[in-house]
Amino acid sequence: MGSHTIKLDSRNVRVTGNLTVDGDQVVQNVTNTTIEDQFLEINRNYSGAGAEDAGIVINQGTADNAVFYYDGTDNEFRIGTTPRFIQDGSSIKWEIDGGAFNLSNMKVATTPTHDNHAASKKYVDDQVTGGGYSLNFVGDDSSSISISPGSTAYFSGGTNITTSATEEPDQININLNRDLQGIDSISTDRSNQDLTLTANGTGSVVIEDVLTFSGAASTPTATTVTKLYNKTPAGGGTGLYFINSNISSGAEGELISKKKATALAIALG
C-alpha cells in the first residue's frame, strides 16, 4: 500500500499471460526492444473521425526531434523534424506542433522497379536529361520528328504563320495571319472539290493582277451560275467562254473581242 512500487530484481522475468498496464506512461530503460508482433497499433483508444495525428518520434537530444507520422487533418503521411511538441492538457499525450514542423528529405532506391515505386531525384533527372524518353511530333502525313531529352524543339512560323508559347498552362499557339503573302498555289485536297473564295459582308473578291484561264479539257455542265472557262477561239475571237443554264437554255457562248465586235458592226451596217 505504501509506495505502490513493485521491483523485480531478477535477471529474467517472464509473464506467461496477458499484461495490461493501466497508467499514463510506460518507460523502458533498455538497450534493445524486440517485438514479435506483425503490426503495432498506435493511438489505440482514439475513437474520433480520423482528424488526429499519430506516429513515431525519434529523440535527437538537443537537436529537433525526427518524426514520422500520419496527419489526420490532411490525410497524408509526413516525415520531418520539430523542435517541440505541445502537451494535451495535464495528461502525457503529445501532439505535433504543426506550425513548427519542417519536412525532411526521404532517400529511396536510385532506380524504381515497379510503376508505383517512389523515384529518386537522380532517376528522374537521368530520364529527363540522359536519354530516358524522347518526344515525337507526328504530322498528318504520318511523318515524325523525334526530339531527344536535353534537346530543344523550336516552332518557327513562315511569312503568314506566327507561333508563341506560354508556360502556364503549357501550350503552343500557331496563328495564321489575316493577310496571306508569298502563296504560290492554292488547291483543294479532294477530287472534283470546288475552291470557294468568299468575301465578308458586302465585300467583293478583288483580283489586282492578270487573271489567267487554263484551257478547259471539256465544256463544263451548265448550272444556274455563270462559269467562265478557256477553249480554242471560235467566232468570238477570244477563246473565253461562259455557260449558264438560265442563259440561252444553257448553250455555250463565247465572249466577243473588240476587234470582232467592230467588224460585225461594220458588216451589219
| H/E element sequence | EEEEEEHEEEEEEEH
Strand arrangement in the largest pleated sheet? 1-2-3-6
Distance between the termini: 151 Å
Strand content range: 15-25%
Query: Would you report the number of β strands?
Result: 13
Write the layout of secondary structure elements.
Elements: E1 54-58, E2 65-71, E3 76-82, E4 85-87, E5 94-96, E6 102-103, H1 121-129, E7 135-138, E8 144-147, E9 161-166, E10 171-176, E11 227-230, E12 240-243, E13 253-254, H2 258-267
Antiparallel strand pairs: 1-2, 2-3, 3-6, 4-5, 7-8, 9-10, 11-12, 12-13
A few lines on this structure:
The protein is mainly beta and 269 residues long. It is built from two helices and 13 strands; from the N terminus they run ββββββαβββββββα. Among the domains are: 33-106, no CATH class; 211-269, no CATH class.
